[in-house]
Amino acid sequence: MSSHNAKAPYYYVPHSSKWPVLGGVCLLMTMAGASAWVNNIGWGMYASFIGIAMFLVVLYNWFGDAAAESESGQYSDRIDISYRWSMGWFIFSEVMFFAAFFGALFYAKGVTFPWLADLNHKVIWPDFNGIWGGVGPAGTVEAFSKMTLTIPTINTALLLTSGVTLTIAHHALVANQRSKTIFWLFLTILLGAVFMGFQAYEYIHAYSDLNLKLTSGIYGSTFFMLTGFHGFHVTMGAIMLSCVLYRLMKGHFRPDWHFGFEGAAWYWHFVDVVWLGLYFVVYWN
Fold this sequence. Notes:
Oligomer: single chain
Mean pLDDT: 88
CATH architecture of the largest domain: Up-down Bundle
Largest sheet: none
Helix content: over 70%
Radius of gyration: 23 Å
Shape: globular
Strand content: under 5%
Low-confidence stretches: none
CATH class of the largest domain: Mainly Alpha
Number of domains: 2
Structural class: mainly alpha
């Protein structure tokens, strides 16, 4: 990739910024509020949502500063490489995050359930049949039904299609076809929004019709933790792509200088891959 600006400094050193400190304060408020919320303390929910709202404001201004620095020609190829490494390590940390939950799921299904269902444990758990998604001994977990494949299959098609539309948008940007890029990127965001709508409907269906809740044993807890965190990542990815779309409409990015677009695209493709894992491991069982 050629340099964005031949007159850019060898390596740009940003000026002092208040955003990292403010971001830390907002995250502290968010997590303190969430901790209070799950412990049924009245102010917890409000503090958590206020912290999230304030953090979004911080991110808007923080990334706005970075975009302004880039568009003013202060970044060189060295900064571009730094951003690529940073985004790569960030996505790697997300891989490890989901690996922990997938690990818990595999351990429960492959180790704990067969172990508790063997003959040596029939005295302790006589009614336990070791069926994943089944109900344990009486009085432990309320009866529930497992998820079906209809909505997850639709969501799989939506996310895979969004990956295709995002790739088309990227190729259009490289070809300097801005209008085409904007159209296909908007379509990608729309597909993500439809995905989240279906997931919200799936959660309502699980609670009201299947009696499947976060408290429904290890099946319910792993299901909602994995799909819930994935849904959160889809939402964040859609927000990232929306910011990129806004910048495209303002004339930002060039065919040879658009890592802001590429970084968001990497994240979106990562979310797609995680969903494929969820679809085959969580739903096909």
